Predict the structure.
Amino acid sequence: MDESSEKGRRGARIRKILIFFLILTGISVSRETDENHRCMVCHGRKGMKVKVAPKKYLSLYIDYKKFRESVHGEKLCTDCHTDVVVIPHLKRPKKIDCLQCHYEGNVFGAPVEKFPEKYKESVHGKARKEGKPNSPVCIDCHTTHYVRSPEDTLSSVYKTNVIRVCGKCHLHELSTYNDGVHGKALSRGDKDAPSCNDCHREHDILPPNDPRSSLHPKNVVMTCARCHADVKVMKRKGVPVEQVKAFKESFHWIALKFGVLSAANCVSCHGSHLILSSTDPRSPIHPRNLAKTCGKCHPRADENVAKGKFHILPEEPKSGIVFYVSLFFKWFTFLILAALVFHIILDLIGRVRMRKA
Ligand code: HEC
Ligand code: HEC
Ligand code: HEC
Ligand code: HEC
Ligand code: HEC
Ligand code: HEC
Ligand code: HEC
Ligand code: HEC
Ligand code: HEC
């Protein structure tokens, strides 16, 4: 058998395989369009809607281009609407649960990094279960057919957009947040600033008085510290960064550690949504308001508290008297210890000499 006929046969085989694959992909492309266009014949009509309550309509129109651009755009309509088999279909196809794919260990490749399953235990999930219709389900935050990745700037849950999603229902919190330093920074497009879910999380949102909440007095320091202890981020913003470290050396932190939840945490002094710089006269930490802020818990606090700095690190000379007192005690302790050691050594030498004598 010569080499060229061997090559020719191999070429033919490759051609055959190629043609086979071309046919296969051709079939699958037309399967996608055929399948979905079966639905789009009707659901592609703008203005298609159905009355669900007196004066309340549900739009049945799907913008197919936007659907195809979504994270589920490669799916068939019937991957989710599995019970829609024949056309015309049942009047009320069954409800779709997003969690039918987005559960831990699923085989669909549906991401679960943010634990969407925890929604069921969240304040929103529980309220829904109790029949409160104004509590959000997956599609209220993510949209139904136009779901995008949180990293996509067009996504409803993209960092700078999600405040509007939460704010639809929590108007008061949105407006106070927008007035504060965090909201102002985010509206400038600063992605280092916290959005609602950086503090509250997204799927396991709990009332702040629940011990498992990221904002429970026991946990709130960690939540603020995630950013405020990050030297890189805070240097960039020109925001002092020693607060967290200093706080962790304060009486308040020690009290909190011992379970005294009435002790001050970051939020007791700074507020939660309307957080302002100490130079802003509206801020609870503006020197003029400090007596009132500390006075909430220390009834005898007076104007004198306003004179001292609050977040201080004893090891820094700029802390003034605290630095020198701290320095004094450091040396004082050292000298006492040294004297003690010296005394023990003298004592030992004395004993050895006595035994020898
Ligand atoms: C012949 C037109 C037509 C076609 C084709 C069609 N539908 Fe529908 N669909 C309707 C109508 C009409 C309704 C509203 C039924 C009602 O509630 O009265 C509807 C309702 C629905 C609903 C739910 C509405 C609700 O109340 O929750 C879903 C989901 C749905 N269709 C999915 C599909 C899918 C998936 C396909 C393709 C496999 C499809 N439809 C093809 C006409 C059509
Ligand atoms: C990733 C899953 C998924 C895919 C893919 C999907 N749907 Fe839906 N669809 C839903 C969910 C969730 C709802 C919300 C109602 C519910 O709970 O069943 C819904 C609702 C609907 C409704 C009722 C109107 C509305 O917006 O609530 C129609 C009509 C519909 N789908 C048609 C389609 C058509 C046509 C396609 C294909 C182009 C499609 N769906 C693809 C998940 C999906
Ligand atoms: C049929 C299974 C299925 C259903 C039902 C489903 N998803 Fe998905 N979802 C997926 C898969 C698979 C991906 C990954 C797609 C990809 O990366 O190409 C995905 C991706 C996502 C992403 C993007 C995640 C990321 O980090 O990029 C979000 C958000 C999402 N889905 C939310 C939802 C919501 C909300 C619903 C209900 C309306 C839903 N999903 C219903 C299978 C599903
Ligand atoms: C209160 C609003 C809200 C509700 C309700 C909600 N989500 Fe989310 N979801 C978010 C936000 C905000 C993010 C973006 C998180 C981030 O910035 O990384 C997100 C991210 C995601 C992601 C992408 C991250 C990941 O896990 O890989 C998926 C998937 C997802 N959600 C699925 C769901 C499902 C399924 C439900 C319903 C059980 C649901 N979500 C309910 C707000 C919500
Ligand atoms: C810097 C962290 C932070 C950010 C950002 C934040 N919150 Fe809060 N939020 C808190 C804290 C702390 C509490 C609990 C203490 C309080 O009630 O003041 C709280 C309480 C709440 C409550 C419960 C109020 C009540 O009276 O029980 C809601 C609702 C809420 N926030 C919604 C939002 C929304 C919506 C956004 C985004 C616009 C947002 N939060 C942004 C920290 C934050
Ligand atoms: C569709 C409306 C809606 C959306 C969107 C929504 N919420 Fe809520 N939220 C509610 C309702 C209703 C409750 C009260 C549930 C109850 O009565 O127990 C609630 C409760 C809360 C609570 C607990 C308040 C308390 O005092 O216990 C917090 C915190 C919260 N939501 C934060 C958020 C955040 C953050 C987002 C956005 C990621 C968001 N919500 C999106 C309707 C919404
Ligand atoms: C996601 C990161 C992040 C989280 C979480 C966060 N912050 Fe901030 N914070 C920032 C950034 C960034 C700035 C600077 C904003 C600017 O550029 O004006 C800031 C500014 C501030 C300022 C004003 C500083 C100044 O000099 O103007 C205070 C006070 C503050 N945050 C307190 C808090 C408290 C209290 C919490 C917790 C309840 C918290 N922050 C949670 C990122 C965060
Ligand atoms: C949310 C309530 C609360 C706020 C606000 C608060 N504290 Fe405290 N503080 C406590 C508690 C509780 C203790 C624990 C020991 C105790 O019972 O005195 C404590 C302890 C202290 C101590 C050490 C023990 C003592 O009583 O001398 C000092 C000093 C102190 N706080 C100063 C301040 C200053 C200054 C402010 C204002 C910038 C302030 N605190 C705001 C609750 C608070
Ligand atoms: C007992 C009250 C109190 C507590 C608790 C507290 N702070 Fe402060 N914070 C202040 C005061 C007062 C200032 C004003 C400047 C100073 O004295 O350092 C301040 C200043 C700041 C600043 C600089 C902003 C400015 O405009 O000067 C940041 C950032 C900050 N605190 C973050 C935090 C964080 C994060 C926590 C929790 C780990 C926290 N604070 C806990 C009272 C408090």
Observations:
- The two ends are 112 Å apart (CA to CA).
- The CA atoms of residues 149 and 155 lie 6 Å apart.
- Residues 36, 39, 43, 58, 60, 62, 67, 72, 75, 77, 79-81, 95-96, 98, 139, 144-145 surround heme C (ligand 2) (CB under 6 Å).
